[in-house]
Amino acid sequence: MQTLLFALEVSLNGFMTGILYALVALGFVLIFKASGVFNYAQGVMVLFAALTLVGLQQGIVPFQHLINNLLGTSIHGFGWNMPTFLALLLTLLTMLLLAWLVEKLILKHLVNQNPVILFMATIGLAYFLEGFGDLMWGADLKKLDIGIPMGISDTVEQTTYDWFGYGFFIDRLDITASIVAALLVIGLTIFSQFSKTGRALRAVADDHQAALSVGISLRRIWVIVWSIAGLVALIAGIFWGSKSGVQFSLSLVALKALPVLMLGGLTSIPGAIVGGLLIGVGEKLFDFMVGPMIGGATENWFAYVVALVFLLFRPQGLFGEKIIERV
Amino acid sequence: MGQTETTNKNDILMDIVNVTLRFGGVKALSDVSFNIQRGEIRAIIGPNGAGKSSMLNVINGFYTPQEGEIWFEGKLRPRLKPHQIAYQRIARTFQNIALFEGMTVLDNMMTGRMIYMKSGLLSQLAWWGKAEREETENRLIVEKIIDFLEIPAIRKTPVGMLPYGLQKRVELGRALAAEPMLLLLDEPMAGMNNEEKEDMCRFILDVNEELGTTIALIEHDMGVVMDLADRVVVIDHGEKIADGQPDEVRNDQNVIDAYLGVSH
Ligand SMILES: Nc1ncnc2c1ncn2[C@@H]1O[C@H](COP(=O)(O)OP(=O)(O)O)[C@@H](O)[C@H]1O
Ligand SMILES: [Mg+2]
């Protein structure tokens, strides 16, 4: 009984992590569906969004190292903290601007190119953004705190104790993250189902030629999907950054999104969500049950092994349609 | 509608003048000229690979010809992107069905109304004011087209689940939803059985007669062309080899040769 409760607690924690994986995977899927581009920069976008938020909020002078080196000054901060709400708004605007620039400077010039070329372009974008973020805000580890409640939830611990005689440790940050992520997904779904632009997004995902023929501008849609991906990256960045600090390693969440994508399929939004949750729960549970027998640290590879095995049997992913080669 | 010898300039909806289209070394269209009159059904015929689809793609902006002019409603058309041409109320269907597979019949047709929907992103996000009104208004028009095409029963069905013939009909519906000034149909009857063909023929005639829509259509089946078209232009190897009324064209020696593969 005790083990079962442990396992349940571990699963719940995995579920919360899984939600963040799902968010990052969702960013990938949105862009891939609309433009056939596998956006290697999605992880770095998470980092960049979080960096910008921290930088703005803490009043860090952008490019301070560069300025200090060039001018021999030693400025560090503006000496004020920006109100969180304003910092969030400006970061969001930055992500929208980024989407617009990506379309203007990259995608526009590469329409109809081989997907591999577009993929390479996003690799370039990833390294550029990583370097640019460092240059602008500095590469040191930053603490992100925008007032989201953190620490073990007493309510959950108390309630579960009353029910099971065993109190669960669940971080309040994780609870908030789950709620926000769920709201985001519900919002996006409603938007894509019931609005004109949502319909245009789905149309472009299904058939570029047909979408053009009814008057949809692909370039406008690309700006919109990159903006949504930017928003998703910002939200993932806020929660992941609040949890583990903002620095380069934040962009590595994207590495966990890869197996999620293999599991869920590149083009399926439900796939990204279910895949994220499965990997999140699976890796924690596996580490809890099997880890001790084989010396632990299974979390690093578990997701990939599952994805690989899965690929062998269902290459189209959980919800993808069966791939039939056209001849 | 009958064809008169004297054509008024105002009757010409689109004038295609000396269009040449090349793909690398391949000439898909060479120096092709013909016009489309308001209210007519204009057929474009020719053997496989003749350049018929290329012609439609030039008209709706997928391809940009290296030479030639396109006059639409009496004005020389500048170089436009396909989605801009859609706003001039030129709608089309495709040789291989190009529906939005993941969507229902209704949603497919609603995308056909895209050019009439002008609400901003914020209004849509809030589902307030203009966006809501717009949805309702356009939905009414789409419902009328659904009735016209006799498919009310499948309104909420995802198009991927429909049989081929119905998919073609939905695709026609999506194009009609744009209330087009010029409707382009690329082999609307291809791959259909006889019954489906008859239905499609009837719908094309009804669209032309009841809605007064000008139609340019590509078709292989000579019999169908004879029944439908007011005028026919024949393309072979990218060149126009005949242009006229159906029975004239049918008896044209060049056309007979092209179809039998004699002279090249
Ligand atoms: N996008 C393209 N790229 C290269 N060649 C093309 C393209 N589209 C059409 N063609 C060529 O143009 C010619 C005419 O094709 P098409 O217009 O499809 O003929 P039809 O519709 O009359 O069967 C063919 O030789 C075809 O290979
Ligand atoms: Mg063709």
Explain this structure to me?
The complex is a heterodimer of chains A (327) and B (264). Chain A is mainly alpha-helical. Chain A has helices at residues 2-35, 42-57, 64-71, 84-110, 115-137, 154-164, 172-194, 196-206, 208-213, 218-244, 253-264, 269-289, 291-294, 302-313. Chain B has 264 residues and is of the alpha/beta class. Chain B is built from 10 helices and 10 strands. Chain B has helices at 52-59, 82-86, 105-111, 121-126, 130-148, 164-177, 194-210, 222-228, 246-250, 253-260; strands spanning 12-23, 26-37, 41-45, 67-72, 75-76, 90-92, 182-186, 214-218, 231-236, 239-244. In chain B, the strands form 2 sheets. In chain B, strands 6-7-8-3-9-10 form a 6-stranded mixed beta sheet, sandwiched between helices. A 4-stranded antiparallel beta sheet of chain B has the order 2-1-4-5, with helices on one face. In chain B, α3 (105-111) packs parallel to α6 (164-177). The longest helix of chain B has 19 residues, at 130-148. The radius of gyration of chain B is 19 Å and the shape is globular. Classes of the chains: A mainly alpha (327), B alpha/beta (264). Chains A and B meet through α8 and α9 of A and α2, α3, α4 and α5 of B. Residues 23, 26, 28, 46, 48-54 of chain B line the site of adenosine-5'-diphosphate.
